[in-house]
Amino acid sequence: MAYDEGLAQRIREIIADYPADVHEKKMFGGLAFMVNGHMCVGVTNSDLMARVGPEQYAAALELPHARKMDFTGKPLTGFVYVGDAGVAADDDLMAWIERSYGFISSLPPK
């Protein structure tokens, strides 16, 4: 599984401060960060995978460098890929993680 280890480390450093059960799991051809049993964000190749939820999906796709997550040929509603330029700045990466964590926090723990 190929993924940008530098981006994964940056996510680890940010998400470590979140008050939740966080662990890593290899999935979607990369590395996913699970929060309370739900996929929150992840890395595949050099892209961030962000779970924004169905209600924020359309708005997330309007943001710079975001696109549909469609690794199977069918888009996963509520999930987006963010190109590396969209998370190059720490503030941008943090904003995506917070957006995803906000959605995950609304779900019951698994």
- Stretches where pLDDT falls below 50 for ≥5 residues? none
CATH class: Alpha Beta
By CATH, the topology is Aspartate Aminotransferase, domain 1
Domains, number: 1
Mean pLDDT across the residues is 93
CATH architecture: Alpha-Beta Complex
Number of strands: 6
Taking the sheet with the most strands, its summary is:
6 strands, antiparallel
Q: Tell me the helix content.
A: 25-40%
- Please give the count of helices: 3
- The termini sit apart by 26 Å
Proportion of strand residues: 25-35%
What are the secondary-structure elements, in order, as H or E? HEEEEHEEH
Q: By helix and strand content, what is the structural category?
A: alpha+beta
Shape: globular
Strand order of the largest sheet: 1-2-3-4-6-5
Polypeptide structure, described:
- The chain is α+β, with helices and mostly antiparallel strands and 110 residues long.
- It has one domain (5-105): Alpha-Beta Complex (Aspartate Aminotransferase, domain 1).
- It has 3 helices and 6 strands, in the order H-E-E-E-E-H-E-E-H.
- It has helices spanning 5-15, 57-61, 90-105, and strands at residues 22-27, 30-35, 38-44, 47-51, 66-68, 79-82.
- A 6-stranded antiparallel beta sheet has the order 1-2-3-4-6-5.
- Helix 1 crosses helix 3.
- The longest helix has 16 residues, at 90-105.
- It starts with a helix and ends in a 5-residue tail after the last helix.
- The model has no long low-confidence stretch (mean pLDDT 93).
In short:
This protein is of the alpha+beta class and 110 residues long. It contains three helices and six strands.
